[in-house]
Design goal:
Radius of gyration: 26 Å
Low-confidence stretches: none
Shape: globular
Bound molecules: zinc ion
Distance between the termini: 19 Å
Length: about 675
């Protein structure tokens, strides 16, 4: 489907809509900046646990008036219910009564701010509040990201109450107690452990799906054509079943579903957090069906500290998330507190609204160019089952599978190499740590028959599972001190032969053992060796490449594969490697030595659309993009939508090279 513009909303707290005068001033503010927003989404509360149903019913009465007033001014207007289940323990004295069953941890502890997702009383509560909200005649209702089962403080995960365990008994046929279930997750034999974990993740998928089926029925009974939206983050423990949940929310009549992917990036103190969040969001979007077209990224400065995240980053953030797959943005950057100065109620926020209106043409240009096309390139091997492998040797629920999934991209995606989020859009898969334990044999064979770049831990896991013939290497030892990587005579090291990379193993922040590799096939080739500070060889093979019988091209590295990879020799080698691994099928990358974020979107033409960010505080000069295309001219758009037409400076195999005019600090360019 061709989209002709972005979809933008602002989320509005009670402080902004509760008082009629303040609300009118808010509408005046948006009227002054046409295009800043299409929709207003009104929060039902500003604290996260569920409020008593009668409070929500009363608020819905006022919201009906506000929604009508906003629509009169030409805005789409709907409701963002902040608490369906609830989140954290906040404002408990004024929240829903303790007679509503709460979420329970595997140890039997309560989260007093969150309801059990399967309790009858939770369903009764949703019937009451969702009916009241639908009666306010909203254009849409957003379900917030409290509908999740992991990350509600003070517990780690839920729900393991007796009701939920009884439901699981119907699925598993086993009468688990919390104690025996904990043993099954954490202490059983690996095969059995993975089986029970998988069963519990199916149970989690079904828990959310059942609740959504109930919400869908409830709201569409009152307002049959009204879209529902859902806000997510990376939902690994919940089973990442976005496609199924979207299908359920659409209901039997095929009503539109909206999506709001999110993640934690609340201030611009650590700027790289913005693009890391774009990759989190790219994963979330990658599993949505094509029928979901309105995908607004969450943009927040929570807890609403305006100086913590400036206008430039706020504006760029929306564009960055569009680059990784969204088709719009939802700004949650206005105050939640009552207006301090009645004479100038939005003094603090008006510059942001002005900036978003100014950015709007660029958002529209991005979305109308790339639509719902998938980013193509390097994929981190995650799937909706990845959480199975979380802390495979220990406590399942506290494991950090996110690290295995995010680490490969953290520095690699700053090298101007393109990020992809799903296997069918991958030219190279990057495998790290235990995450491969969550892959099934079909998925592994698929990965090993294409381009794959993996660390020693992933190698060990694959060999354990019987794939040694396809990997070409094994680890035979580990070196914990003084190891340095040296590039040996190999085509991947053209121009960098003999260069060193010393990641300083003795520094406590990153003491990581280096694997000593051994070739298990005569066709495997060494790319680097490991030496010490006296130039003595500690490992004859520290990394290498192998082409297996499936035609898959494999790189295995045992030395700091994901970190400290940003010096010239390593970057040169990595780009050569990625081209070799992918058989020159990567759609685009930055071929000059620059730090840059890049997404290549397959828009069905004979060239991808390329979106890139200069994530530096100096301008990027002489930045060259290699694009796999027969075309010898491209158009480059800056964030003001100014167009420059460029001819190719040279070609390199299937690629044409284009040197961009200087890209300013933290600016984006669209190349088509
Ligand atoms: Zn429960």
């Amino acid at each position: 489907m061709k989209l002709n513009k972005a979809s933008i909303s602002f989320r509005i707290g009670i402080a902004m809509w509760g008082d009629k005068q303040v609300f009118e001033a808010l509408l005046d503010l948006f009227d002054r900046y046409p295009g800043a927003t299409d929709d207003l989404a009104f929060f039902t509360s500003h604290t996260h646990p569920p409020l008593p149903a009668d409070v929500i019913v009363e608020r819905a009465g006022i919201l009906k008036l506000r929604i009508s007033a906003a629509k009169e001014r030409g805005y789409g207007a709907g409701i963002n219910i902040l608490a369906t289940l609830g989140h954290h323990e906040e404002n408990l004295p004024h929240s829903i009564g303790s007679d509503y069953p709460r979420m329970v941890s595997l140890e039997g502890a309560l989260c007093r701010g969150v309801l059990c997702p399967n309790a009858d009383k939770t369903y009764d509560y949703s019937t009451q509040v969702y009916t009241a909200l639908a009666l306010a005649e909203p254009d849409f209702i957003w379900i917030d990201d409290d509908v999740r089962l992991h990350g509600h403080a003070p517990i780690v995960a839920g729900c393991f109450c007796d009701t939920c365990l009884a439901l699981f008994r119907q699925r598993s046929g086993v009468d688990y107690t919390r104690e025996s279930l904990s043993k099954a997750f954490n202490d059983a034999q690996q095969r059995e452990k993975l089986r029970v974990r998988a069963e519990w993740m199916e149970h989690n998928r079904a828990t959310i799906n059942r609740l959504f089926a109930h919400i869908e029925k409830t709201v569409h009974a009152v307002r049959p054509r009204m879209p529902l939206g859902f806000m997510t983050g990376d939902r690994f423990f919940e089973g990442y079943d976005f496609a199924k949940w979207a299908e359920t929310l659409t209901g039997p009549d095929g009503i539109e579903v909206l999506w709001r992917p999110g993640g934690g990036f609340y201030d611009d103190v650590m700027l790289a957090g913005m693009t890391m969040k774009s990759h989190d969001i790219g994963r979330q979007v990658s599993v949505l069906p094509d029928s979901v077209v309105c995908i607004q990224s969450e943009i927040e400065n929570f807890p609403y500290q305006t100086l913590k995240k400036g206008r430039v980053l706020t504006s760029l953030e929306a564009a960055s998330h569009i680059a990784s797959g969204c088709t719009g943005a939802a700004f949650n950057i206005l105050a939640m507190n009552p207006v301090f100065d009645q004479t100038a109620p939005f003094k603090e926020h008006e510059p942001f609204v002005e900036k978003m209106a100014a950015s709007r043409p660029f958002y529209d240009l991005l979305v109308s160019t790339v639509g719902r096309s998938a980013p193509q390139g390097l994929y981190t091997g995650w799937t909706k089952n990845s959480f199975l492998a979380s802390n495979i040797a220990g406590d399942w629920l506290t494991g950090n599978i996110w690290e295995d999934i995010a680490a490969p991209g953290r520095e690699m995606f700053e090298l101007g190499l393109p990020a992809a989020y799903r296997p069918d859009a991958a030219q190279v898969t990057m495998l790290s740590g235990d995450s491969v334990m969550a892959l099934n044999d079909g998925e592994i064979r698929q990965i090993l028959s294409s381009g794959v770049y993996m660390d020693a831990k992933a190698l060990g896991r694959l060999n354990e599972r019987g794939y040694g013939k396809l990997t070409g290497f094994r680890s035979i030892d580990f070196i914990c001190e003084d190891s340095i990587e040296r590039y040996v005579d190999h085509p991947m090291n053209a121009g960098i032969l003999g260069a060193l990379r010393d990641c300083r193993q003795s520094f406590p922040g990153w003491m990581k053992p280096a694997a000593v590799l051994e070739k298990t096939n005569d066709d495997a080739q060494t790319v680097s060796e490991i030496i010490d500070y006296a130039d003595d060889v500690m490992a004859a093979c520290g990394s290498g490449v192998f082409e297996n019988e499936l035609g898959g091209r494999v790189f295995v590295g045992g030395y700091f594969l994901w970190r400290f990879i940003q010096d010239l020799p390593k970057v040169t080698q990595l780009k050569a490697l990625m081209r070799w691994l992918s058989r020159d099928s990567i759609p685009a990358y930055v071929s000059s030595f620059h730090r840059a974020n890049l997404w290549a979107r397959d828009i069905g033409a004979d060239a991808p659309a390329v979106i890139l960010i200069n994530p530096n505080i100096e301008p990027a000069e002489g930045l060259r993009v290699a694009i796999r295309t027969p075309r010898d001219a491209v158009n480059v758009f800056d964030m003001q939508c100014r167009k420059t037409t460029l001819g190719s400076t040279q070609s390199d195999g299937h690629y044409r090279l284009f040197e961009l005019p200087a890209v300013g600090p933290w600016e984006m360019r669209l190349v088509v």
